Amino acid sequence: MSEARAAAGRPPLDAAALRERLVQPGGLWREIQVRPETGSTNADLLAEARSGAAEGLVLVAEAQTAGRGRLGRSWTSPPRAALTCSVLLRPDRVRPAQRGWLPLLTGIAVAAALHDEAAVDARLKWPNDVLVGGRKIAGILAEAHGDAVVAGFGVNVTLTEAELPVPTATSLLLAGAACTDRQQLLEAVLTRLAGGYRAWTADPDAASLSAEYLAWCATIGQPVRAELPGGGQLSGTAVDVDTTGRLAVQTPSGVQLVGAGDIVHLR
């Protein structure tokens, strides 16, 4: 399929079908909304959280005009070319110090869905990127308000080269994926996220989550440079992720824990 044909043939999501498949008695997802356009799905759900909305609300936008990335970055998505989705969660059984695992848990769900449904070799770059062939195909942002956490993810599905936000990005179309059906991919991500979230909140101390994350993570074992908030840097080898989701970096002066920042793989 040519890029021009892909850009022209982007069907809308079927909200009723998503609700029928994913909103089930006793399930995590209680409501799924699909909007033609919004500024930021994360911002919209944070407003819902401030209003007291219950856990399990899912918001998907066919186009996002003021999406937010980590460290205050912004990005947009062409209509129906990507999956832009946020979920409202209230992990009240999980200690606040452990909630740093939530974006990592979301990353596992995205990577696993892309691997299983689209047959691409998806890998995780700590803390919030999903890579295919070393290029970013998805990003994740978790933001908290009180006991609520909004986890958002954006997946490049049929973006052409000209539509990519940065030259180091890619899309499922450009990666030659076996599936670019956004309906199928979204259902897969939300199903995996619900299962992973339920297991994590039932036993936040389980070592299985850490083991699963490390199995998907391309950062562990890499020489890295951590560009820290405020302008600092440290370099070393990424060796582990601790019990709160921080990256452990072995430096000449010892192991340093990184809770936030940009990680650059040095090879």
Descriptive key words:
267 residues; alpha+beta; BirA Bifunctional Protein, domain 2; SH3 type barrels; 2 domains; seven-stranded mixed beta sheet; five-stranded antiparallel beta sheet; 6 helices; 31% strand; globular
Query: What's the rounded overall pLDDT mean?
Result: 93
Provide the number of structural domains: 2
Name the CATH architecture of the largest domain: 2-Layer Sandwich
CATH class of the largest domain: Alpha Beta
Secondary-structure content class: alpha+beta
CATH topology-level name of the largest domain: BirA Bifunctional Protein, domain 2
The ordered H/E elements are HHEHEEEEHEEEEHHEEEEE
Helix content: 25-40%
| Relevant CATH superfamily of the largest domain | Bira Bifunctional Protein, Domain 2
Describe the structure.
The chain has two domains: 3-214, Bira Bifunctional Protein, Domain 2 (BirA Bifunctional Protein, domain 2), CATH 3.30.930.10; 219-265, Roll (SH3 type barrels). 27% of the residues lie in helices and 31% in strands. The protein is built from six helices and 14 strands. β7 (129-132) and β8 form a beta hairpin. α4 crosses α5 and α4 (101-118) packs across α6 (207-216). The longest helix has 21 residues, at 182-202. The radius of gyration is 18 Å and the shape is globular. 42% of the residues are buried. The mean pLDDT is 93.
What is the secondary structure topology, with strand pairs?
Elements: H1 3-8, H2 15-22, E1 31-35, H3 41-50, E2 57-61, E3 64-68, E4 74-77, E5 82-89, H4 101-118, E6 122-125, E7 129-132, E8 135-145, E9 148-156, H5 182-202, H6 207-216, E10 223-227, E11 233-241, E12 247-251, E13 254-258, E14 262-265
Parallel strand pairs: 1-2
Antiparallel strand pairs: 2-5, 3-4, 5-9, 6-7, 7-8, 8-9, 10-11, 10-14, 11-12, 12-13
